[in-house]
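Q: N-acetyltransferase, please. Structure only.
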Amino acid sequence: MSAALTYRLDRIPPVDAIRALYAAAPLRRPIHDPERIRRMFQDSNVVITAYDGNRLVGLLRGWTDFVWDGYVCDLAVHPAFQKAGVGRQLLDLAVGLGEGIQWVLQAAPLARDYYAHVGWEKIENAWKMNRAGWTPTSYETYQAEHADLAARA
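A: Structure for N-acetyltransferase:
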């Protein structure tokens, strides 16, 4: 890990770098489908990245109207950079996009305690419609299936 990371707003990283980071994080996303990953980022209006040199080590993907509502879709940090403030900095940069935006997110099971640790409030008034056509495997299975890709992150 280098001394200073570089954070960038609204730059979409290469799809292969995103897929590798998701596999390493592990953030269960459809990394077997590069086109779907590309479209996920193409159609998001908030993309914030963290780089160690040219290496993608963190990213936040989301949507906002820049006035009232914001949604964090993904927060992924490479395991070698977790507990170094990367996730908090990515979240802080999103929150700084506009005064008065209320940000929400759905925490991955492995990250539920993290968000309270960085000052986010747990809410109970959310609803969801399950995603059709994709049922995620366990984290253990996901990591085993994508170990080769994760090693590229």
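A: Brief note, in case it's useful. The helical segments are 15-24, 34-42, 86-95, 112-117, 139-145, 147-150.
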